[in-house]
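Below is a concrete protein record.
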Amino acid sequence: MIEFYTNKNYRSYLAYKVDKHMGKYDDSFKLKIFDNNIFNCSHTLNNRIKLIKINDLDIKIIEVENIYNNPYAIRNLIKETPHVLNRQVNTSAYPGFVSSLNYVDLTDLESILNNIISKYYKDIEFKNKIEKMSFSTGIYNRSMICSENQQLLTHKDFDNGIAGVIYFNTEDEYDGGTSFHYDEKENYKLAYLHKMKFNTMILYPSDTYHSIFIENSDSFIETYRITQRFFIR
């Protein structure tokens, strides 16, 4: 017997797992299943694309509001997906926890990215076509990270590509966002701060120095900084 229940567009099943040793059922096992339609996007972008130019750095940041049609369902999915401490599995500067789902269809988002990049980032030569993206997420929480992993490092990702972030924090959780900086010759001085906004995507050249930016020292202790992250080479 399987009991089915719904919560908005996020669906969960209560399933039974056979205990191989005892030969009995254990109904404490919950199988999480979601509807891939939660990743549908609106393709009417005319009034939602904002071009931000940082002239001193000669870079372009693209902002798109309301990127997903079902952002609350995606937020719930991220919060219920297991994450691992980034420093245990990667050498990147991200100080929080990461996860990646490969069997997810992000065709709508890929189409939007292809359209934006072909218009605004013509000067970048990409090695790979944007297709079959994984759903990669990052969660940052101060209280869950030991002190040596709390440092928010100013860094760049790689040369000749695009990096992107989609915020999933609701308005009551807003604090900071993503900061963009001059290079080491200028001591990584702050050049621009993009403030987080729910269900908003930002794109920027991957060789731009940047960092998580948090204004208040007591933020993201009881709550989490929740993002989708992607890199296009």
Remarks:
- Residues 3-32 form one domain.
- The chain has two domains: 3-32, 38-232.
- The chain is about 10% helix and 35% strand.
- Residues 1-22, 146-150 have pLDDT under 50 and may be disordered.
